[in-house]
Amino acid sequence: MMTLIAIFFPSLSFLLRGKLLTALLCLILQITLIGWIPAAIWAVVSLQNSRADRRNAKLIKAVRTR
User: Fold this and answer.
1) What's this model's pTM, rounded to 2 decimal places?
2) CA distances (Å), 7 to each of 11, 15, 54, in order?
3) pLDDT below 50 — which residues of the chain?
4) 29: which of 23, 44, 54, 66 is 20 to 30 A away, CA to CA?
5) Alpha helix (H) ranges present in the chain?
6) Alpha-carbon distance 8 to 61, whole Å?
7) CB 45 within 8 A of CB 2
8) How far is residue 47's CA from residue 6's CA, in Å, rounded to a whole number?
9) What is the pLDDT of residue 33?
10) How far, CA to CA in Å, does 21 sit from each of 45, 58, 59?
11) How does DSSP assign 25-36, residue by residue?
12) Mean of the per-residue pLDDT values for the chain?
């Protein structure tokens, strides 16, 4: 669901994750039709990186508790 939001509403994707300044910068970028594609790519990559960071944090926590 968040991936679709990141594609169609890139700035909203950042806003929902609490990144206000990034959401504003993304909104400025997506105002132009040409800037929409880079904004959508940026939002999707950022979302995937955020998911990977959370997954890695869980793995590190699991390894440290052993």
Assistant:
1) 0.83
2) 10, 14, 21
3) none
4) 54
5) 2-8, 10-16, 20-30, 33-64
6) 34
7) no
8) 8
9) 77
10) 17, 27, 30
11) HHHHHHTSHHHH
12) 92
For residue 53, the model assigns a pLDDT of: 94
Q: In whole angstroms, give the CA distance from residue 19 to residue 46.
A: 11
Separation CA 20–CA 66 (nearest Å): 38
pLDDT for position 32:
84
Q: How many residues does the chain have?
A: 66
Residue recorded with tokens 């052993």? 66
Structure tokens at 1: 């669901």
Contact 13, 3 (CB under 8 A): no
Question: Position 55: which residue type?
Answer: R
Tokens of 45: 């990559």
Token code pair at residue 37: 């594609």
- Residue 36 carries which side chain, given as an amino acid letter? W
